[in-house]
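user: can you give me the structure for this one chain? tokens are fine.
assistant: on it. calling the predictor now.
[tool input]
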Amino acid sequence: MAYYLKSESHLDPGPIYVRENGQLHMVNLALDGVRSSLPKSKPFRLFPKGFSVELCMNREDDTAQKEKTDHFIFTYTREGNLRYSAKSLFSLVLGFISDNVDHIDSLIGFPEQIAEKLFSAAEARQKFTQPGAGLRALQKFTEAYGSLVLCSLCLRNRYLVISQKLEEIKSFRELTRLDLSCCKLGDEHELLEHLTNEALSSVTQLHLKDNCLSDAGVRKMTAPVRVMKRGLENLTLLDLSCNPEITDAGIGYLLSFRKLNCLDISGTGLKDIKAVKHKLQTHIGLVHSKVPLKEFDHSNCKTEGWADQIVLQWERVTVESVQPRKNMDLRKTALNFYQTRAPMEASRKCPLADTHMNSSGKLQFYREKASDCHGPSLKHEAALSQETKKSKKRAFEESEPEQNNTPQSSKQKYVCLTVDDWDLLNSY
């Protein structure tokens, strides 16, 4: 005990308490001498000096404040008082998943109704415009829902969108209508090569007006159909107008499109137009139209699907990025991107698009028996020529008044059908 008390290495044990007769007494008088000889120990501190703790009850960062208010819907009563109600669990979960939509593994087999709401929520948060993450999220939706995401895509005059969002555009599947008019793509563009993939075998209407195409580009585009019966085999409408380097040889490659009902080759470099007309009519049954066809006025091809607003967001973002450089030469920018031969200077208006041409200058063809494609156009053609037919009929009756009284001529008069009769027969 003495050794323990006299040890210099021993720390102060603190006060000693003794209970006597139910009362607690502190015994420290006897150890005053011992304690005075021991070195004084420093008090133990949980935190170092200078450390202070401040209770912040009313301070929250922006993220916490947003998460706190995001769970409620704020409205006002008639008296002008603020009223809030809690959001449903579905809304909260939908918002959380849409914020992390790029981390979804797969959506195959997921209900379409819920997926559409999830797509809209992610679109409202502009998740598809983010580089990298937007592409991954869009691919998850397109591989699961295909044409529901986008069934028709119009990129006419939007060559800047194609240059900056090429991978996103290539992720779309099961498109039925695609308009790439006036984009100056050329024969070697990656998007034209993508048209021959299996993902776009569902395309039935394709507009390639004014894209600097030549016979080589047409040969490459039709190769899968000619060799393997794949690619654009379901194509029913094709617009190749305003491509002056497409010649008679390039038109020969189009004969592999057996389902083609409408074709526009106006403004191409054809040399023997009569032979081309005969070839198209003989091999695939297309006849030359005397009036412009309604199918080629670009009014039927619009962007339709869940992602129609995303395309508009892409265009807005690209326009905003180009505005600081609006004084740059657009021709040099196009050459650096496409890496092809020098195309014509890009413009917002396509040649022959806004000018009126004679019907003889239009090389548009249609299939006579395909009522789905040229039915409305035939009615328009019949309406235009109705007055001409009536005038010829009156002139014929006036020139031969005596023959009209014979039984044979009267019988022929009843056999001939009017334009209204033909329209009625075509309606069945």
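assistant: here you go. The first helix runs from residue 2 to 6. The first strand starts at residue 16 and ends at 20.
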